[in-house]
Amino acid sequence: MQTSAPTGPPGGLAPRERTLVRWEVVIVLALSLGRSAVYAILALADALSRGPLKGQSTALNTSQSPRPWFDLAYQLVGILFTVTPAALAVLLLFLTGVSAWQVLGLDLRRPLRDLAWGALLAASIGIPGLAIYYAGRALGATVEVVPAALGEYWWSIPVLVLQAVKNAVIEEVIAVGYLTVRLERLGWGPRRIVLASAVLRGSYHLYQGIGPGIANLLMGVVFAEWFRRTRRTMPLVVAHTLLDVGAFVGYALLRDVISL
């Protein structure tokens, strides 16, 4: 694995440009994962104030309407608008005069290698993640997470797959690729960048409880360091998609025989 140089000379920004880059990062995060982090922290505080987390639950991918066609429409529109900040981040990188696809490593130049590394990352993250989740449940530090709460429609599985892809794109593009590139532009060091990315990832999962927050923080360290060394987000998108497809679709298909 090779490490590429960051985009632009780090720390060589004029004061006005440095201020603009800082505000750009703040605004992108406020429109996306930073906003999610604030709500997740509030949700955790709310849950803790209600009593032990062990007796509480949270559902992901819920139905938005009792009428199937409107539910499908709400699901698809929600996916589209949620992933839009990732497109904004890519556009902002293009506006700096670089190829965002190349800078982020978000291309199809090495599909087989990206798939292989993505599958390996998914396996190495998924198994410890489940262990931390169940440990958190046993310790009462994690709410019960229901990964899929859609009705049983013909489109439920495809929508769950799209939800997984959406999560992977928005999180890996913004929390890893974009954030790393822009913080490097501001002159941040590698350890500080990895920590910032990991803390962001852990914080917007805190609505699930302490355990998932810790698990995702550790995942954030691995993913941020991977990008720092390889300059590719595509394997991370593959890994994240596989993890979420396994959780969402697996639960939807096996909900009658398993209890998470």
Write a structural description:
The structure is a single chain. With 260 residues, the protein is mainly alpha-helical. The chain has one domain. Helices cover 70% and strands 2% of the residues. It has helices at 15-30, 33-50, 68-95, 100-104, 111-139, 156-185, 190-203, 210-230, 234-254, and strands at residues 57-59, 144-146. The chain has a two-stranded parallel sheet with strand order 1-2. The longest helix is centred in the middle third of the chain and has 30 residues, at 156-185. It is globular. The two termini are 37 Å apart. Residues 1-9 have low confidence and may be disordered.
Low-confidence stretches: 1-9
Shape: globular
The count of domains is: 1
Secondary-structure element series:
HHEHHHEHHHH
Summarize the biggest pleated sheet.
2 strands, parallel
Number of strands: 2
Mean pLDDT: 93
Distance between the termini: 37 Å
* Main structural class: mainly alpha
**Oligomeric state as shown:** single chain
Which strand order does the major sheet show?
1-2
How large is the radius of gyration? 19 Å
What distinguishing features does this structure have?
9 helices; globular; disordered N terminus; 260 residues
Short description:
This protein is mainly α and 260 residues long. It has one domain (15-254). Helices cover 70% and strands 2% of the residues.
List the helices and strands and how they pair.
Elements: H1 15-30, H2 33-50, E1 57-59, H3 68-95, H4 100-104, H5 111-139, E2 144-146, H6 156-185, H7 190-203, H8 210-230, H9 234-254
Parallel strand pairs: 1-2
Helix pairs in contact: 1-2, 1-6, 2-7, 3-6, 5-8, 5-9, 6-7, 6-8, 6-9, 7-8
